[in-house]
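in:
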């Protein structure tokens, strides 16, 4: 007999029987569950009470031992502090401490860690265990008593001990430490406490914060890890003030209930546990008897229900049998007459009425089915026919595909057609209804709007609606069609998004930035009290990252930066990727400039954490330019231009900073642009020239080299300092052409000196990072030497530290080629960059050049003096010559000579000179040295 049996009698019988059985089972389960929970609460309460008493007793014993040790330390005679013999005798007289508390060791130690006296006696020894030493030194450090975690014993490393310490203070100074210890594996002051338990399998133990078992009835478990399932509970118990009870699996995979409580005088937990199987044995017995009683009651109930239902459902069974054979009957035999009243009698009358209407309903159904097939079988659109009162005459099956609602739901609630319209599109319908005077809106216009389907999704539909009239013009209703156009709309939105957003980061692009900035300035005109802030943000040295790590890594880095910047936005703010590594912010509705400062600091702080785009950490900084509407411009174009100008000023000011726009910046930018445009013409017209600064060998007091320094005399602006035009040349790439001119000119001049000048001088030339990274750099150097005829050993190339590490492998290959040609290689401005011994050993270098920023203050700043000495020692240890630049006083020169510096250059020797002035200077110095040499020889 199955619940799916066609007989209603059978199903009703099963349903009533099943309901009774379910109620009885639920009652039984609830009763048993309540009984088990109350039983567990009682057990837990007993265990908690016992644990509280044990915790108080353990705390009392620990406090008693600590106070006893502290009292003895305070009462130590002065003679003990100076005599090891007296100290040993006094310590051995502390029999109470030794026999009752500290059965392992009792020690006196001085501040050096040596044992003055101990039991057993080992005067002068030093604890071998580092953890023992740390436990003792802590008391020397803070002057307070301490109780250690379990530590290995000095003479039995596998033994574990707990050390109590007490300071011996004389004149407010800790002169000694008195320490006592007991072994965890031997009887001690806490051993008897852990013998308490509940039931036959219960046990007590002590646990520390590291989840280690301090004491346990089973010695094998001492200082073993607690069961993994209780680790989280241990951490919680340390934070909780009162007892904590939980279930978990023990180390032997049996389920136990454990109560934990934090001790007051030591940072340990006391834990009491008992086996659930043992504790709940009475409950299992009760469950068995309860189940037997419940099943017996169920069997009796089933028999009673079966008998009663058979009597009650007999008329219903007769009616069901007649209905089952109805297709075989004709005429009056199709009607049924039963001698019953009530619901079954009413059902019999309704059945007879239904039989009379079957023929009429069958004919109507055939007509309806024919219309249905004509209208709906060949379309995926949702079509309908609504009566004048708004109810439905017809609904196509596609309604569920388009709206999610079935035809039955729409027939029952026609208002769903209007209710499913998206709230944002309802005003359009209300306006059209008001204009047409039709509350259901059946205009001849084709409209598109959104609907909310039954499942909650939003879909776009195209809606057509036409009125239905008969031949006499009588209004019969309206027919309509809703077509799903969601995919076409989504495709259009995707195309629109791609046009206005950056494909890499998904942020608005430059076009959308311009539109939103225009809207922000327009809204600003309507509210003059608020400020609109425009920020231009550029990642510093992003080109170097692209060049060294690759463009793919650079793209991933841009995506990560965009994600961090998004988190800084307010709801009305806009973040755009303006292009390359430049991002822009539009911050409307700000009240003061201070909010722009706050946002700038937040942007720079967001970059402080390193990025890891390709398994390699990258640290970034940025430069920010700020323009505020209306102070710095009232239209979008002006604000954009001024914010960008301020950003470039921030980059020139040292990067990793922000600048507000100032009118002077436009003049500076115009001047920088003028200089940038003037450099190629200046090189062609001979406005660039070289000066040479001598370099002195301190040992022989002779000029051995000169450094070529680039100068620019602008025909209109006069002398332009190198720190102004060289960064411009680096940014524009003109430094490559300019650097080649310097290399060739300097080599030509040095070759000329070798022919017609004083003794051969080596010439040093600075190499820029852009120039060095060129693939043909080595060939360019070789061509300059070949064309000038200069011997390679008279050319020295000065490189920066950052240049070498930007692409270490490529740099090493180029340096090895240059070195094989015989060219000298030097590190310029050493100490201001990475200053790593690794690359000094790795690269084939000849000289280190100490940056002048250290030389300026070596006589007044101990740090600069120490750094200078370290650089000299470092260079000599690697067999490198060391030269100091920027030497301006005799005192600085003497300092360097005393530290063994090899060479120097600076204004104390000579300022940078022209070709002729250098010839005069070197010649005069050689003649002077020769005269002094003759004088020395004659005397």
């Amino acid at each position: 007999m199955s619940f799916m049996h066609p007989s209603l009698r059978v199903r009703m019988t099963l349903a009533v029987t099943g309901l009774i059985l379910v109620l009885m089972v639920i009652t039984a389960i609830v009763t048993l569950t309540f009984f088990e929970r109350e039983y567990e609460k009682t057990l837990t309460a007993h265990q908690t009470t016992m644990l509280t008493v044990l915790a108080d007793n353990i705390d009392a014993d620990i406090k008693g031992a600590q106070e006893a040790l502290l009292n003895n330390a305070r009462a130590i005679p002065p003679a003990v502090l100076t005599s090891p013999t007296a100290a040993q005798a006094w310590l051995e007289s502390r029999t109470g401490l030794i026999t009752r508390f500290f059965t392992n060791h009792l020690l006196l130690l001085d501040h050096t860690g040596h044992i003055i006296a101990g039991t057993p006696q080992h005067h002068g020894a030093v604890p071998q265990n580092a953890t023992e030493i740390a436990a003792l030194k802590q008391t020397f450090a803070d002057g307070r008593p301490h109780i250690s975690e379990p530590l290995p014993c000095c003479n039995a490393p596998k033994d574990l001990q707990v050390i109590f310490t007490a300071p011996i203070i004389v004149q407010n100074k800790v002169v000694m430490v008195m320490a006592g210890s007991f072994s965890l594996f031997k009887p001690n002051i806490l051993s008897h406490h852990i013998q308490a338990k509940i039931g036959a399998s219960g046990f007590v133990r002590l646990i520390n914060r590291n989840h280690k078992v301090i004491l346990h009835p089973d010695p094998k478990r001492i200082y073993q890890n607690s069961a993994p399932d209780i680790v989280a509970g241990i951490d919680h118990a340390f934070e909780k003030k009162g007892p904590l009870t939980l279930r978990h699996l023990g180390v032997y995979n049996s389920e136990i209930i454990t109560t934990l409580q934090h001790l007051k005088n030591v940072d340990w937990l006391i834990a009491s546990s008992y086996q659930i199987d043992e504790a709940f044995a009475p409950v299992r017995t009760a469950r068995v008897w309860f189940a037997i009683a419940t099943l017996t009651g169920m069997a009796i109930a089933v028999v009673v229900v079966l008998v009663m239902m058979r009597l009650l459902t007999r008329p219903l069974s007769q009616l069901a049998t007649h209905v089952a054979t109805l297709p075989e009957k004709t005429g009056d035999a199709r009607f049924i007459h039963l001698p019953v009243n009530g619901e079954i009698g009413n059902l019999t009358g309704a059945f007879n009425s239904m039989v009379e209407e079957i023929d009429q309903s069958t004919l109507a159904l055939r007509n309806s089915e024919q219309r249905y097939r004509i209208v709906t079988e060949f379309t995926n659109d949702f079509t309908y026919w609504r009566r004048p009162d708004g109810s439905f005459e017809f609904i196509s099956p596609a309604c569920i595909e388009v709206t999610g609602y079935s035809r039955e739901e729409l027939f029952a609630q026609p208002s769903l057609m209007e209710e499913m319209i998206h709230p944002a599109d309802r005003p359009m319908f209300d306006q059209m209804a008001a204009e047409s005077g039709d509350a259901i809106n059946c205009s001849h216009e084709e409209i598109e709007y959104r609907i909310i389907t039954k499942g909650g999704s939003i879909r776009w539909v195209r809606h057509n609606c036409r009125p239905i009239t008969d031949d006499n013009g009588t209004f019969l209703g309206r027919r309509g069609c809703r077509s799903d156009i969601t995919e076409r709309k989504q495709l259009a939105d995707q195309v629109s998004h791609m046009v206005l957003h950056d494909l890499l980061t998904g942020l608005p692009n430059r076009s959308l930035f311009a539109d939103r900035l225009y809207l922000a300035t327009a809204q600003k005109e309507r509210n003059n009290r608020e400020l609109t802030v425009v920020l231009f943000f550029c990642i510093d040295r992003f080109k170097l990252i692209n060049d060294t790590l690759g463009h793919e890594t650079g793209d991933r880095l841009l995506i990560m930066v965009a994600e961090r910047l998004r988190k800084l936005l307010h709801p009305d703010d806009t973040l755009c990727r303006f292009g390359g590594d430049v991002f822009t912010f539009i911050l409307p509705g700000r009240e003061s400039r201070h909010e722009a400062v706050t946002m700038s600091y937040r942007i720079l702080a967001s970059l402080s954490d390193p990025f890891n785009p390709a398994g390699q950490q990258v640290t970034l900084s940025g430069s920010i330019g700020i323009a505020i509407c209306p102070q710095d411009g009232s239209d979008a174009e002006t604000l954009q231009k001024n914010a960008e100008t301020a950003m470039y000023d921030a980059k020139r000011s040292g990067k990793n900073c922000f600048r507000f726009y100032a009118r002077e910046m436009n003049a500076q930018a115009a001047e920088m642009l003028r200089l940038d445009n003037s450099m190629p013409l200046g090189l062609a017209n001979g406005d660039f020239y070289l000066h040479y600064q001598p370099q002195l060998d301190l040992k022989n007091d002779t000029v051995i080299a000169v450094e070529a320094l680039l100068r620019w005399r602008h025909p209109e602006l006069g002398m332009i300092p190198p720190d102004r035009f060289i960064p411009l040349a680096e940014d524009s790439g003109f430094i490559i052409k300019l650097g080649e001119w310097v290399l060739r000119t300097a080599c030509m001049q040095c070759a000329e000196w070798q022919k017609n000048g004083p003794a051969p001088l080596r010439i040093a030339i600075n190499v820029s990072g852009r120039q060095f990274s060129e693939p043909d750099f080595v060939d360019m150097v070789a061509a300059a030497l070949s064309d000038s005829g200069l011997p390679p050993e008279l050319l020295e190339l000065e490189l920066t530290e950052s240049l070498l590490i930007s692409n270490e492998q490529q740099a090493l290959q180029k340096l090895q080629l240059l070195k094989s040609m015989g060219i000298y290689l030097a590190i310029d401005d050493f100490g201001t960059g990475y200053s790593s011994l690794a690359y000094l050993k790795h690269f084939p270098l000849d000289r280190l050049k100490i940056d002048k920023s250290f030389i300026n203050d070596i006589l007044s700043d101990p740090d600069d003096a120490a750094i200078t000495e370290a650089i000299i020692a470092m260079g000599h240890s690697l067999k490198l010559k060391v030269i100091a630049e920027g030497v301006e006083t005799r005192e600085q020169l003497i300092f360097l000579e005393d530290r063994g510096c090899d060479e120097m250059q600076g204004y104390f020797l000579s300022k940078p000179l022209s070709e002729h002035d250098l010839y005069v200077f070197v010649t005069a110095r050689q003649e002077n040295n020769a005269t002094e040499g003759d004088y020395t020889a004659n005397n």
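note: The longest strand covers residues 156-170.
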